[in-house]
Structures are given as C-alpha cells and as structure tokens.
Design goal:
Helix 8 packs antiparallel against helix 10 and helix 10 packs antiparallel against helix 13. A hairpin with a 5-residue loop joins strand 2 and strand 3. The strands form 3 sheets. Strands 1-2-3-5-4 form a 5-stranded antiparallel beta sheet, covered by helices on one side. Strands 6-8-9 form a 3-stranded antiparallel beta sheet. The protein folds into 2 domains: 80 residues, Phosphorylase Kinase, domain 1 (2-Layer Sandwich); 242 residues, Transferase(Phosphotransferase) domain 1 (Transferase(Phosphotransferase), domain 1). It is globular and about 75 Å long. By secondary structure, it is α+β, with helices and mostly antiparallel strands. The termini are far apart. It catalyses: L-seryl-[protein] + ATP = O-phospho-L-seryl-[protein] + ADP + H(+); L-threonyl-[protein] + ATP = O-phospho-L-threonyl-[protein] + ADP + H(+). It comes from Galendromus occidentalis (western predatory mite). This is cyclin-dependent kinase. It is an enzyme of class 2 (transferase).
C-alpha cells in the first residue's frame, strides 16, 4: 500500500510532444525519411533540456530541500509529469519512483521511545539528508493497522501549519506501518526539565501563543486533538512549538452523537469529561491549554491526580467546589452527586503572580467549569496577555513562523531567576 500525501496540483497545460512523432507531407505521405522528423526530435530534446528539477518538484508538490534522484530523472516519463493533467496515478507512480513509501529511503539511527503499539526512532531521509522521526507501528496479522494510526494519517495529511508537526511520508510493509515525521529535538516536558522547570515569562508567552495558534487552525477545521500534554508538544532548535500525536484526535464534523470520555491524559482532562460527558467540543482542548499554561509558569503540574475521583478533588481544591451558579446543571450530574465532594476553595492567584494580571485572567478564562464559557483558541490569541507581540502576529500565513517577526525571540534564563522561582515555589506548597 502506498499512501500519497499532499494535495493534487492545479492542471498545467503545455505543448504536447508525441513520443514517436509522425510527420505528414503535403501529399499526405509520411516524411519520416526526410529531415523533418530529425528536426522534431531535436526540438523534443531541446524542450526536455529546459525542464529543471524545480519544475518537477513544484509540479509534484515536493519539499524544497528534496534531491531528485538521477535515476528518476533518467527513466521517468517527464512529459507525463509536466504536460497536461497530472492524474493521481501518475503522481503516485512518480512519488514511488522517487523513493516515497519505501523503507530503504530512510535510515534508522537511535531509538527515541517505545510504547504499546509503536516504537519511535530518530532517522535520516536519503532524499533530503535531513533528520526525521520514524514512528514504526507494529501490525498484527489479524487486526491490521490500529485505528489510531489510520486516524493520525488521515488528519495530518491535510494539516499544513507551522505549529503542527509535518507528516512527510507513510511506509507500509507486511509487518509494520511507519509514519515519517519532521524531526524535532525535544518535547515541552523535556524542555522544562532542561531549564530546571523554570521558564521566563517571555518564553511562556511565546510557547503558549504557538500552542493556541496551532489549536486555532485545528479547531477552525473542526478537529479536536483530545490529548494535549507537554509530552505531545514538540520543540525544535528555533523554539518553534508544534502539536504532535494526533492518535486520539477526531474530526467533530464526523456525524457521531457522542465521543468517548476515555480521552486526554488524566492530569489534563477537563472536569466535564471526568464526570462522564461525551458530547463535548473544542473546549475539551482548552482546559488542557490552561493546565499546560500553569505548568510552564510554576514548573509543576496543576492537577496531578491518581484516579478520576482524586483528579476531581485536586481540581475542586484549587478552583473551588462547583455550585449550580458557577456551573449550571452540575447538581443534576449523577457522578458529581455520588462522589459527595466537600466544599472547598483555594486562591490560585498567589501561586503564579509572575504571570501578571493579564496572564492570570487568561488562565482563569481557560479553566472555566462550564465548557461553553471557556475561551476559544482564536479568542485566546487576541487576549491582552499577548499585546506585547503587536498586531502583525495575527496576520502571519499559516505556514510562517512567529519568529519571522521582529522582536519575537526566546530569552535565556539567568541563575538568579531560577533560584528565586524555586524559593517562591517552595513557599507556595
């Protein structure tokens, strides 16, 4: 099986040169014996010589840094690629001949991690010589490809955004399905650990905006990520943050009355889902954004529960036990009533004062009990907390990096700042 990524190109009309031209004289007879055919052959070679690798790459929507193999240029039907409509079959055949969809195109380097169904390797593409991440999913003979893998491929192939990880290729063999992603050095959890679990307010703001930007793009297309956590947010050496691991993502536009409530890692799961709600929307992701926002600011998870009840108790301890006034309909939720939670409340303002009033206001807007009142990703990008970036950051093309704007850059963390943050963290325990 070969899965073609990317969208079909626009039709390109050029002069057609037949593979075996037959020239007719004035009397209707063939003049192949004359010099006319030689002239056309020379014209054909002249036309082909004008074809550049860039033309082919553009026509096939290939990455700019991809090196077309000489063997492909030598034996591929260039006229079929560049002249007339580019059919799905021609494009698929061309990509296969270039090396897409083939395991030998990628070299495994180091194992990065291993899960129940998949192993992730650091690798290198022979087509671009760039590093890639190879997510190798083991296939069971009777079961085939896991639904999570199929879902991830079907969604990611249509998502083209600077803050969403790029899926370059899919390789299918008898024993495995390998997803080939762009390689990013670390995830947000590793980044925080590498910086002593302390981030400058500038860096928090930069990473949060990129998270909201990627989510806004997904939510506009009615795609719910459903598994936001620091481990699923990847960061490259430039500081670009990208949403990754769409294995639990779903398209809300799919006509399903209810979704599963067994989604989102426990610490980042919203209370409505914890209490059994299955008819949720994009607000499920926004709660997770709030938890990650706090974690970047404080260096510790906000709600580290060990099971559903403990998770809810952690939430209510920090944000207060919900009332009918704060969360209309909560007193009719059977799960909530069954748990018989004690009324309690702790002021969260004192935990992260360095976020400033705008930052704390945004945090509370994300952590609203009532799902429909949580701020959306698009609204969050326009929150006063981000005013320091200026208005042009909202005008960037989807595939552009926010670091192309003047003044947007990550800052270094001083030792004194880390010590002060650690001292405050200990005092707030």
């Amino acid at each position: 099986m070969f899965l073609v990524l990317g969208e079909e190109n626009e039709l390109f009309v050029a002069g057609v040169v037949h593979e075996h031209p037959r020239v007719m004289g004035s009397d209707g007879e063939s003049e192949e014996a004359s010099g006319a055919s030689d002239d056309l052959v020379r014209m054909r070679h002249k036309n082909v010589s004008r074809v550049s690798k860039e033309d082919i790459s553009k026509r096939l929507s290939l990455p700019a840094d991809l090196h077309l193999p000489e063997t492909f240029l030598a034996k591929s039907p260039v006229s079929a690629i560049l002249e007339g409509p580019l059919t799905r079959n021609i494009r698929r055949q061309s990509l296969a001949e270039i090396g897409f969809g083939r395991s030998e195109t990628y070299t495994k380097l180091d194992k990065l991690g291993e899960g129940t169904y998949a192993t992730v390797y650091k690798g290198r593409s022979k087509l671009t010589n760039n590093l890639v991440a190879l997510k190798e999913i083991r296939l069971e003979h009777d079961e085939g490809a896991p639904c999570t893998a199929i879902r991830e491929v079907s969604l990611l192939k249509d998502l083209k955004h600077n803050n969403i990880v790029t899926l370059h290729d899919v390789v299918h063999t008898e024993k495995s399905l390998t997803l080939v992603f762009e390689y990013l050095e670390k995830d947000l959890k590793q980044y925080m650990e590498d910086h002593g679990n302390y981030m400058t307010t500038n860096n928090i703001k930069i990473f949060l905006f990129q998270l909201l930007r990627g989510l806004a793009y997904c939510h506009k297309r009615q795609i719910l990520h459903r598994d936001l956590k620091p481990q699923n947010l990847l960061i490259n050496e430039k500081g670009e943050l990208k949403l990754a691991d769409f294995g639990l993502a779903r398209a809300k536009s799919v006509p399903i009355k209810t979704f599963s409530n067994e989604v989102v890692t426990l610490w980042y799961r919203p209370p409505d889902v914890l209490l059994g709600e299955t008819n949720y929307n994009t607000s499920i992701d926004m709660w997770g954004v709030g938890c990650i926002f706090y974690e970047m600011a404080d260096g510790r998870p906000l709600f580290p529960g060990i099971d559903v009840r403990d998770q809810l108790e952690n939430i209510f301890k920090v944000l207060g036990t919900p009332t009918e006034e704060r969360w209309p309909g909560i007193m009719e939720n059977e799960n909530f009533l069954r748990y018989m939670f004690l009324s309690q409340s702790v002021d969260i303002h004192n935990r992260v004062p360095r976020l400033g009033q705008d930052g704390i206001n945004l945090l509370f807007a994300l952590l609203r009990y009532e799902p429909k009142k949580r701020i959306s990703a698009a609204e969050g990008m326009r929150h006063p907390y981000f005013d320091s970036f200026g208005p042009n950051i909202l005008k960037l093309p989807d595939t552009a990096s926010i670091f192309t704007l003047p003044g947007v850059a990550l800052s270094k963390t001083s030792q004194n700042s880390r010590i002060e943050a650690k001292r405050h963290s200990l005092l707030s325990l």
